[in-house]
Structures are given as structure tokens and as C-alpha cells.
Design goal:
723 residues; mainly alpha; 2 domains; two-stranded antiparallel ribbon; 25 helices; globular; transmembrane helix; transmembrane
Length: 723
Amino acid sequence: VDRFLHSYSLVAQDLPAEELQRLQELFSSAVEEHTQLLAQVQGGTLVPPELESRLGSLIGRFQLYLREARAVCTQSWARFHPLRMVGGCILIAASCLLCYVASELAAASDSFYRSCLLCPLLWGLMVAVLLGLARVFTQEGLDLLLVSSWAAAASQLGFFWHWWGRHPKRTRLVGSQPPLASVSLRQRLRAWLGLAFPMSILLFRCGAMFSDSFVVAEARVAPFLLASLVLLLVGKLHWDGRLTVPEGPKQQLLGFSSYRREIWYLLCLVAMLLICVRLSGFFHQCREEIPQCRPSLFLSPLASLRNTRAKNLFYLLCVALLAGLVYAVRSWLRHYGNLNSSDPLVLFVRWGFPLVVLCIACYWAVASSADDSLGKLQELVQVAVVAFPWAVYGLASMGLLLLLCNPMTVFAKDMRESAGSIVTPYLGVPSSEVDFLHVIPQIYKRMQESQKSRLERGSYKATVAAYGLGSVYSAALVIALTLLVFLLMLLHSERLSLAFLLLFLEAFVLLHIHTRARGLAGDAEPFSVPWYAVISWLLAASQFFYSTGHQPIFPAIHWNAAFVGFHLDHSTNLLPAVLVGANTFASHILFAVGCPLLLLWPFVCEMPSSQKRKPKKEPREELQEVEEHMMEMRLRESPEKFSAALLQLGLKYLFVLGTQLLACVCAAMILRRHLMVWKVFAPKFLFESLGFVVSSICLLLGISLVMRVDCAVSTWFSHLQLR
């Protein structure tokens, strides 16, 4: 202990010098007495009774030294501020409550939420300025943490005061709901269960953070809770009678009913989700607390494989999966008409995406064979290991800049009748058969256009056909997510590309489950995302934090991500911190940026082919019915609801994030004297806090991208009206 304190005092100055001097004197006197006692025992001058008393006194002095040393270290190293801890927990809890209340306010039809959020923000800024000026004039040190906390508290108090003052008035204005007595017990129970069953899953998730065993096993807890939430959703739909259709009076009397066709598609989606959850467990990282655990083979880079055949097979599989991801994204964009224009962004998706895939594949090839190259080839490989990642960084940055400058992926075609000739002149070799082959298709096409124009003339005539307008918001988000996946896959080992493919597939399945569940439930509020969708989205983000080879412990951090595209040197700590942070919180980034898809996807899936067969109608009615499928353009019909829906979705996402963070903070505060606090709870608290910050920033960026697309759509419509 004395040697440790001496060595520690040479590199750190947090132990008081006078206390160390006192401990040194106490230890030196005890050692001197021990030396004298040893000399007397060797000389045979001590009798056993006196020796026992001297030994007891010496042991007591050494024990006193150990107790004093422990007290000095405890006072310096284990300093807790319970008052500040409680204040921080209250602040986070009030923030979560604010997010929940504000999300409910945003769902209302009036614009009360604007003043309810703007005025408290001004209150908080005013309190921060006053506290800062008071600190400056009193010549005290400016504690930024304290000033920020008081400003946040003042802002929250202002929000709740403003909300409480207007709450009774608002209930009278909105009171279009039926009286409570007229609502049946079953309906109230259904409404309560609609909020209770996803919140119970969230409560289990938060409660698990108070157990070191559950924190250690969280890589299995998060997928289990996600699967449970989805299965509970299906059970709730069945209990509400949304999955069955009564066939007739006789069947109703006997209690028989038939299932809807959509239930089988929903069950297939649930099965796909469970398969993805199960497969994601193959990419786990181990913790020291589980000695029998073996880390996944997919975490190691291809360069660690000695079997050349296995290395080549894995390399081809990873490249094929990367190319398959690009093909799937481009097919989706082509299906919804977002690849028809010749804008720079669309051209980048056509040609830039394959080029990025080529650069990543070349980097994986040279990185996996860097140790096998010799001589001048070694120098070339070292240059390529740096050049290819920089090419990916540059191409992805170019794509993101094009997306921000002009996010429109819409192709507009003028459908007005031209005054030109019916048939264009044929310039080939004269021949009667060739002439007919050239003329007849043009005449037929012109007849179709004339017939369509006559049908439209009775109601209205569409002069411009816009391809891809119904999915313009989702297309921008899908392109942004694909570019981010390119960057994040580059920062991970090659074989983790399988995990990112599973991430995309599971997110796609979750979006379709959410869309089908809303369609079966007959939700009358399309601008509101239910709580189960938000919680399942965040559970998937937590699941893939572990399924990309991470754990909330410092030894599991992938430090090699800091040197992707760089030699073993950095002039600043900022860039490697960004690279390592992007590697660690890859799933948080992707799910937070893609969060607006929870709002947009049900509108995207509104396709004419999804309708049931109906009796044959007049051509004009058929044309009008087809054009009613506006998809995401329904959001443009009510801009106020659209902006309020984005705000509500963001607040719900922050509420769930904040609730998880609050549970983690409370666990670290309550269990601060726990044996595993520095091994389990403190690292979990740090990772959860950083994940909250990264998710909040990326959520803001995702919503900002949707707003940027909305501004571009408004500009596009204004230019269209000027034609």
C-alpha cells in the first residue's frame, strides 16, 4: 500500500500532500518498531508474554495505517454529491414528462403547443443570462453546469406553468369527445391497453438496468423484449377482433369467424422479424463476467484468417451482400419512380452507389491481404489502404451534399396534347412492311391519349405527371441511410456487413408490421405514430448495438476504427473520436436518422394494388379513384398537421430515450456503493449517456432532412404553377 501511494502521488495530484506525509510518518514509525522487534526476537531478549503484547501493539499500528490510508483514498476517490445527483435525476424526469405532455399537445388540432414550447424557451434563456451576469458581477467562478441546470429547470417550470394555466381552457375547446359515461368499459379498456402494453415493455427494459446480471446479459434482453412487444401487438389485435371477420348471422350465433387475408401477411412479417432477431445473435461480443462465452467469428477481420479459401469465400459473400443492398435500394427507388429524372442526386444514385461499392470492395481486398504482400507491392498496398477509404469518404460526402442541395427525386412529364403531327416521319429504308411497323404503334398511342383526354375533360385534366412525388420524403431518407451505411460498414470489419444487412432487413420488416397493424386496427389518426412503433424502433437500435459487436465496456471498443483511411498517427483527437464514436453507435445513428420513416411509411404503402376488388365503374370514376392515391402528398394537404406530427414523433422518441437514460442514471446513483459499480453500472451509464446524445443529434438531423425535402417540394410546386 505504501509503495502504491508513493507511485500514485508521482503521476497524480488528487491526494492531499499533508495526508500523504502523515501516512508516511505513521508507516515509517511502524516499520521501525517492527525492525526493532525483529532484532530483539533474534537476540532472544524477549520472553513470550512481552512478545505477544508487542506483536499485538505492532499489528494495531499497521491496521491503523491501513484504515487511515483507506480513509484518505475514499475521501479523494469516492466523492459523491448526492444533492447534485438527485437534482440531475429530477431534471431528467421533468424532461421526460415534458416530452410526453408536449407530444400529447402536438396531437391536438390547435396551435397551442407552439406558445407552450416557445415561451418557456425564452424563460430559460433569460434565467441563464441573469445567472451569468450575477456570477460575473459578484466575481465568482462561472459554473456552466450549474447555470445550464438552472436555465433548464426554469424553462421546464415555465412550460408546466404555461400548460397548467391553459389546460382547463383547452379541454373546453377540444371537448368534442363523448362523455365518460357513454364510453363502454371495453372501449376504455382497449384504449388503456393500447398505451399500457408498450409502456410495460419499456418499464421492464428500465427495471433491468438496476440488476448487474441483466446489464451483463442485455445483449439477449433487448431482442427478447422486441420479440415480446411484436407478439403482444398481434395478440392485442386479435383480442380487439381486428384479425377476424364474422361471416354471417349463423356463424356469429355459433361463435365462428374467419380470419382476414391480411393476417397471414402479418404473421409472415412477424416470423421474418423473429428470424432476424435470432440471426443477429451470431454477431455478439463477450464480456469478462461470462467466462464460458466465446466471441463471434464474424468480429475478426479477414486478414486474421489463415485459410485462403475461407478468406476468399467470405470476401465474395461480403461483396455480394453489399452489392445486394445497393440493388435492393435502387429497386425500391425505381419501383416508386424516384430514379426517372436526370437530376444530380438521381445520377449519383445510379452511378455513384456502384462506385462506392467498388471502392469498399477494393479496400477490403487490400486490407485482407496487406500482410501477404512483399517488396514494392507492400508500398502500393499501404497507399491503397489509405486511398480507398478516402475515396469512400469523398463520394459519401458528395452524395450527402447533393441530397441537401436538391433532395427532389421527382420526374415531371408534360401530359398536355401537343399540336404536332400524329406520326413522326420515318427515315429508314422504304418498305411497306416497315412503314406499317413504324406508323401503327404511333397511331394507336395517339388514340389512347385522345381517349384519355376525353375522359378527363369532364372532371379535370392532369397536365403534368410527376413520377416519384408520392415517395419523395422517404426516398431522401433511404438515400441518406444508404450513404451512412456505406460509411459505417467501412469502419467495421468486413464480415459485419452481414449484420448491417440484417439491420436493414429488420427495419424494413418493422416498418411493414407497423403499417399492417395500423391498417388492421383502422387507426383514424394517420398523422400520429403509436407508442409501440417508437418503442420497438428503439429496442431494435439497442439490439443492433450488440449485434454489431459492441458492449458497454471499454475493452470492447473498436479502436482500430480510428485508423481507417489513416496511418498510425493523428494530429488531433477530434477526428479519431468521431470515427470511433460512429463505429460504436452505428445502430443509434441509423435508427435515429430513419425515425421519420415511422410516420412516412404508411403513406408510402398506400398503393392502388392494395385495394380489394370492387364492382366495375365508369372510366371517369376509375381514373378519379386511381388519382386519389396520393401517398406522401397527403401530408401536403395539411402542413400544420405534418409539422405537428414530426414534432410529436421526435418528442416520443426523446421520451423513450430519456426514460432509459433516467433508469440508468438512477441505477448508477442508488448503486454507487455496489461492488460492480465501476465494472458494470458506471460504464453502462457512460455509454447510455453518449448514446442519448448521438441519438438526439441524429434524430434532429433526420427530421431536418424531412423539412428540407418539404421546402424543396414547396419550391417545386411554385415553379410548376408558373409554367
